[in-house]
Amino acid sequence: MKTDKDDIKEEGTVEPSNKIPQTKDMECAGNGELNEENVENETIEAVKCRLDEKTKQCEEYFDRLQRMAAEFDNYKKRTARERETLYTEAVMDCILCFLPVVDNLERAIQASAKEEDTKSLKDGIEMIFRMVQDALKKLGVEEIKSVGEKFDPQLHNAVMHFNDDKYENNIVVEEFQKGYILKDKVIRHSMVKVAN
């Protein structure tokens, strides 16, 4: 049979059998119970350590969120630019279909101006021509200025050159076909005659 004397160690302290084992940081009180202050300190340190880990994790998630938000913002801007480019190209294709009509109406107006008895025909054609010009203006289409302007290969297509001393060099003197521009993009170059 075991007695209380058997549980006593050489140092003279009683080892509790159903208590938490002692560590170096924990000291026993004189009556054999653990010091509550040491247990609380150890618990606080563990909580602080876990809090630091969670804080780092939160910062990492926040950093990821910021990067994803920036990438999404760039994506929105890029798709908006692409959508605008596609729209501009679609309008240009549409306008290209109208340009032969505009050219023929201009020619009809010029031909009817020579004959006085066709005044009503001329008035009707001019009205249609103005309507088409208004429609083009609403779409943002502008005529390229040519006659009297300096030749610009980005806007003009020189189909004829001639030498004449009364004109400056590289000046457009005649326009065979009007050119049109939408915003900063040329839909069709002006077909011109250039002085050398």
What does this protein look like?
The protein is of the alpha+beta class and 196 residues long. It has a domain at 143-196: Head domain of nucleotide exchange factor GrpE (Nucleotide Exchange Factor Grpe, Chain A, domain 2), CATH 2.30.22. It is 52% helix and 15% strand. The protein has helices spanning 4-7, 36-112, 119-138, and strands at residues 141-143, 156-162, 171-177, 180-182, 185-188, 190-195. A 3-stranded antiparallel sheet has the order 1-4-5. Strands 2-6-3 form a 3-stranded mixed sheet, with no helix packed on it. Strand 4 (180-182) and strand 5 (185-188) form a beta hairpin. It is elongated, with a radius of gyration of 45 Å.
* Classification by helices and strands: alpha+beta
User: Distance between the terminal alpha carbons, to the nearest Å?
Assistant: 129 Å
CATH topology of the domain at 143-196: Nucleotide Exchange Factor Grpe, Chain A, domain 2
Please give the radius of gyration in angstroms. 45 Å
What number is the mean pLDDT?
80
Question: Could you provide a short overview of the structure?
Answer:
With 196 residues, the protein is an alpha+beta fold. Helices cover 52% and strands 15% of the residues. The strands form two sheets. A three-stranded antiparallel β-sheet has the order 1-4-5.
Summary keywords:
single chain, 196 residues, Nucleotide Exchange Factor Grpe, Chain A, domain 2, three-stranded antiparallel sheet, three-stranded mixed sheet, 3 helices, disordered N terminus
